[in-house]
């Protein structure tokens, strides 16, 4: 059997998918929810409670406990881990893990027991953290401004990115920082645990740190110097995403029956892996991922950067580059509105489809329940703009449509810098099951929407990466076999709504500027190109 395992250590769960190249089937698809299965780590939503809403940290021991738990549950359920021919993985982007020495597996004890003594910092800041505005400003000032940061790293200084988080740690806990021998991303930490040794960081995930020079594929010396002292020695080396970083550690062979010598490929970030899992690693389509956060991402024909500083450029695990725009106010905001209206998800969807019209009769919402990163909004306001009944939350159907329209319009507005109009949107994530929501996205973008047949495109992407690297199977064959879209009609846009949403997009931009004074790329502004980029494969 040619089985390939993909793991995904995400915000709220650890998932695993195993694909069988011989049968063309997914033979395992399972997950462990942290809040349900690992309550002792006090992260019911994937992060620790904090009185400061800008601080979002998680317990890194929870991630390794989940790995032990998932592997044990599958073994006890009869799955034969010795059938796995190669492994790769994914981690939530930007999160960092701090060790007092380079990872080395121990023969004794659980993974939690092995890792506990290695931590130089007991918590890990994750992508939801927005507490490093001061550090972002300090780093940008030290290198001459955001222009250099964007040109070198593909993104302006971002609070959730790893660089500013590392700087904050070095300032607030200098002794603990000095005691830190290695700083990993969640993805490279997962790879290190799997091989029982120190693993490198791949280009795809490394590009989300504000530290990697995209033109050279190496750590940017100027960014490192501005971030924290001695940082180069604390970071793993960078490698292409297709690199074999080691073999499965003996611990997993003894505990769970993995075959000795099983290769482990570099783990990458969740968004780069999802690009592969959605069969979107070549230009032409855009992926809309609707989860805890909403993301819009696509393979790039040419590596451009966002002049407004909100969009990002990462490495594409299949080679080249990808664009990504992340919107923090995703499903949690939709759920808040649905709960406030007293609507089930079915009723929420039906209200959009049957009780409202494109453009919502002029009713509009600014959908910011929490601080936002695209555009940058630190003082959120869930604001209704329209009739008296609408602003009082009386018109349930209009409010349901308003939050979804606002999120889709914002996504359209803030992806304009890519200078490509997608003809197809590939939808994934939990909210992609909501047909009413997807119809709005189809209408706003004027594009057909297809749903993925696989709920976890991230773990699937990791499994496909392992198969591509170790079984010498080309991407088109893998995509045709495993990444086909759901067997249902495409969701077509309503051509009559095009003018409505052109006007709504302009109005939304005006409201954003008036209410929050945000920076927005308008038509006619030029995107910037990354100078002499290395092809990140």
Low-confidence stretches: none
| Shape-level CATH architecture of the largest domain | 2-Layer Sandwich
CATH topology of the largest domain: Nucleotidyltransferase, domain 5
Query: Regarding CATH, which class of the largest domain?
Result: Alpha Beta
Spatial ordering of strands, largest sheet:
19-20-17-16-25-26
The total strand number stands at: 27
Q: What is the CATH superfamily classification of the largest domain? A: ATPase, nucleotide binding domain
Distance between the termini: 28 Å
Question: Structural class, please?
Answer: alpha+beta
* Average pLDDT over all residues: 92
Total number of domains: 2
Annotation field: number of helices: 21
Principal-axes geometry comes out as globular
Question: Could you describe the largest sheet, including whether it forms a barrel?
Answer: 6 strands, mixed
């Amino acid at each position: 059997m040619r089985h390939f395992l993909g793991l995904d250590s995400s915000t709220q769960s650890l998932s695993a998918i195993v694909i069988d190249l011989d049968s063309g089937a997914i033979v395992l698809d399972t997950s462990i929810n942290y809040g349900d299965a690992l309550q002792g780590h006090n992260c019911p939503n994937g992060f620790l409670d904090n009185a400061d809403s800008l601080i979002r940290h998680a317990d890194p021991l929870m991630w390794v406990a989940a790995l032990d738990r998932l592997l044990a549950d599958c073994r006890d359920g009869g799955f034969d881990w010795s059938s796995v021919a190669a492994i790769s993985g994914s981690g939530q982007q930007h999160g960092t893990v701090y060790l007092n020495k380079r990872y080395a597996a121990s023969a004794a004890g659980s993974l939690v027991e092995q890792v506990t003594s290695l931590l130089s910092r007991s918590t890990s800041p994750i992508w939801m953290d927005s507490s490093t505005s001061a550090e972002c400003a300090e780093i940008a000032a030290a290198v001459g401004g955001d222009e250099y940061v964007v040109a070198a790293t593909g993104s302006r200084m971002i609070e959730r990115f790893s660089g500013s988080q590392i700087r904050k740690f070095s300032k607030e806990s200098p002794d603990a920082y000095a005691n830190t021998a290695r700083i990993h991303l969640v993805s490279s930490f997962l790879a290190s645990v799997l091989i029982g040794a120190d693993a490198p960081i791949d280009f795809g995930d490394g590009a989300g740190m504000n530290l990697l020079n995209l033109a050279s594929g190496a750590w940017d010396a100027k960014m490192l110097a501005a971030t924290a002292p001695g940082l180069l020695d604390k970071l793993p080396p960078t490698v292409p995403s297709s690199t074999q970083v080691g073999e499965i550690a003996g611990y997993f062979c003894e505990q769970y029956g993995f075959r000795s010598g099983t290769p482990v490929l570099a783990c990458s970030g969740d968004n780069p892996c999802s690009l592969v899992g959605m069969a979107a690693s070549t230009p032409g389509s855009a992926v809309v991922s609707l989860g805890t956060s909403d993301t819009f991402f696509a393979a790039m024909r040419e590596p451009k950067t966002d002049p407004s500083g909100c969009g990002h450029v990462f490495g594409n695990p299949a080679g080249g580059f990808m664009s990504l725009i992340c919107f923090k106010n995703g499903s949690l905001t939709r759920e808040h509105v649905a709960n406030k209206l007293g609507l089930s998800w079915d009723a929420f969807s039906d209200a959009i489809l049957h009780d409202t019209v494109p453009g919502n009769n002029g009713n509009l919402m600014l959908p910011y329940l929490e601080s936002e990163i695209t555009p940058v909004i630190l003082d959120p306001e869930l604001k209704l703009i329209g009739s008296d009944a609408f602003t009082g939350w009386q018109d349930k159907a209009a409010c349901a449509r308003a939050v979804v329209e606002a999120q889709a319009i914002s996504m359209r507005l803030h992806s304009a810098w890519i200078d490509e109009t997608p003809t197809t949107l590939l939808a994934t994530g939990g909210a992609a099951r909501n047909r009413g929501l997807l119809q709005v996205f189809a209408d706003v973008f004027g594009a057909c929407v297809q749903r993925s047949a696989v709920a976890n495109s991230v773990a699937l992407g990791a499994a496909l990466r392992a198969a591509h690297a170790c079984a010498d199977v080309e991407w088109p064959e893998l995509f045709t076999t495993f990444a086909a879209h759901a067997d249902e009609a495409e969701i077509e846009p309503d051509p009559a709504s095009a003018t409505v949403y052109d006007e709504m997009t302009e109005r939304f931009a005006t409201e954003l500027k008036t209410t929050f004074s945000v920076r927005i790329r308008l038509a006619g502004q030029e995107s910037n190109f990354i100078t002499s980029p290395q092809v990140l494969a």
